Amino acid sequence: MRKILSLTVCIVVFAVLAFFAQQQHRAASRSQVMNAAAPTQPVLSSHSKPLLTIDGLQFRDLNNNQSLDPYEDWRRPAQQRAEQLLSLMTLEEKAGMLMHGTAPGNVTSGVTGGGTSYDLERAAVTIQQRHVNSMITRLATQPSLMAQASNALQELAEADRLGIPLTLSTDPRNHFQFTAGAAVAPAGFSQWPEMLGMAGISDAELVRHFADIARQEYRAVGIHMGLSPQGDLATEPRWARVTATFGEDAALARTMVQAYVEGFQHGATGLQNDSVIMVVKHFAGYGAAKDGLDSHNYYGRFATFPGNNFEYHVEPFRGAFAAKVAAVMPTYSIFENLQVNGRTVEQVGGAYNQWLLTDILRGREHFDGVVLSDWAITKDCNEVCRDGAPAGQAPSFASIATGWGVQELTFPQRFAKALMAGIDQFGGTDESNFVVEAVQQGLLTEARVDESVLRILLLKLRLGLFENPYVDPDAAAALVGSASFREQGEAAQRRSLVLLENKNALLPLAVHGQKIFLQGVSEQAARNAGFTVVANLQDAELALIRAETPHQLLHPNYPFGATQHEGDLDFKDNDANLRALREAAAKVPTIVTVMLDRPAILTNVKPLVSAMFGDFGISDEALLDVISGKARPEGKLPFELPSSMEAVRQQLSDVPYDSHDPLYHFGFGLRYQ
Fold it and tell me: What's the number of CA atoms in the CB half-sphere (13 Å) around residue 62?
């Protein structure tokens, strides 16, 4: 009996000790949760969902169930929150998250989403019925109005069942060129030279600083994601998208890409609350465009590698990976007959290319972020897409489709194939029903969908959008395009000018107040700079002409063909700029600046000029400052300038600086004496 009592006492003691140990463990676990994620109360903002107060702290009740769910608890790790939210989502909601739609603007013509405000009725259908919570914005309006418009969209997202905040993305909007569908007009943002100009300055700290300023401007108006930078290499000089690259040198581009990502994401350790998600693009080889034709278009759907130089085109993206870039966008292009280990890579666009996205990007390069497809890859390429608009009919962006190599597949098959290749999110569509159908048809598992949903949720959580997706319109008005930001952008513009010719040391001008004849330059800017503007060459002492790199209208019946710069790079005898230059140079010393959105052939321009610049986006005021000596040009060419179109046609599309006898070599740039 005594032994039984003793055993009973021991059991009771052990039970009591175990109970207290368990309680201590639970308390410690709660303490770890409380202390690990965020020891201080973040700023919360809700417009329709209530706030919960627990232990003196506040939380957003995003699903409006009057209790704190793990995904609403900002103290918890992002991974834990994302997994719990995923468990609450229906298949339809998950499929909606895999769409990256277009925020509908109030202008219905031209590229989708344009205008100065949103169509909230259409937006409500996309967000609340189709559960799409990632969208590109193409609004171009005052910063305060843009902030208000962003808040209106976030209110729609907050009102949805789970209150998942919207991620708003944008094409670049701080530069000079803004081709529809590739960039946006600055509309109040600070204005900087194109990335080619940044590469010409070759100052990584300047790129990082620019990106940090643009980051602040984006977040102030409610933009969370930048569809940039272009890690593409400009090895094919005729390519229409050279302007947004860092040139043709892989080592230089890698350095610039890394700095760009670090500036926008506010560090090199991954996303922070105040980051902008970067989507480095277009992985990889997009710049090796066959005949320079862009693969937005059916006629330009191939990239080609006659120099067996594909790996060279991967190198710039490693700068983004080193900076922990959050997202990657693959190329549109089919790699025409590219051989790897004796086998031809599947002849499909980059978003469907499992070798590219799974074997190379995720496998070899160890990228673990979100892979966002470029736009319209799942659409049908109909007769207008393939052959262009009929004669007499204007080309429409509605005809654009870019699913190269998969057009025989059904829509569910296309979505499934892209996801199995490595895509996480589909750009430019809200057709989430096809993902649901792909799962229902057994083409895709829901577990594969879950992998992508988790990656996308983690981006939103790491930006702090679940706590406060709203912005202050007054603060946006004060910060975006502020005097300081504008001044810094203009200083970069001045530095980026490349001095190509300066005969007899004409520049900087030693005498001010000259009578100047202008073409393409503001008369008021010249007067403000101290010049006397004259209307006739015979009255002038000096001429200043602004010109663009020549291009041809090769495909006017295609929407991108009608807007992109394609074709030859040389000044033909009937070119209006060349005629004006010849007339001016015959009478007075003539200064020319050529906007180098592609590598211009200046062979018949060089003999005529007294001084010549290559520019990558510069205001008239900044240009005149350099001419008059208030600032000095520092830029060097980020690509070579060929000497003839024959040399261009003979060079290899995937190999840098390889044209015969270039007029100006890569890295060329004079300085003032």
Answer: 27
Q: Considering just the CA atoms, what is the radius of gyration of the chain in Å?
A: 28
557 touches 389 (CB < 8 A): yes
Residue 21, strand partner residues: none
Domain total of the chain: 3
pLDDT, tens digit, 9 for 90 and up, residues 603-637: 999 999 999 999 999 999 999 999 999 999 999 99
| In-domain check, residue 380 | no
- For 1-18, b/e burial (b = at least 16 CB within 10 A) is eeeeeeeeeeeeeeeeee
**Nearest 5 degrees, angle CA 598-CA 601-CA 605?**
125
Kindly tell me the sign of the dihedral angle through the C-alpha atoms of 513, 486, 106, 92: positive
DSSP class of 522:
-
- Do residues 559 and 200 make contact, with C-beta atoms less than 8 angstroms apart? no
Final residue of a structural domain among 45, 76, 107: 76
How many CA atoms within 13 Å lie on the side-chain side of 109?
2
pTM: 0.92
Range of 59's domain? 21-76
Q: What is the CATH number of the domain that holds 177?
A: 3.20.20.300
Residues 272, 234 within the same domain = yes
3-state secondary structure of 589: coil
434 and 560 co-located in one domain: no
Catalytic (active-site) positions: 249, 374
Q: Residue 398: its pLDDT value, please? A: 86
- Amino acid type, 519: Q
Write down the pLDDT at residue 550: 97
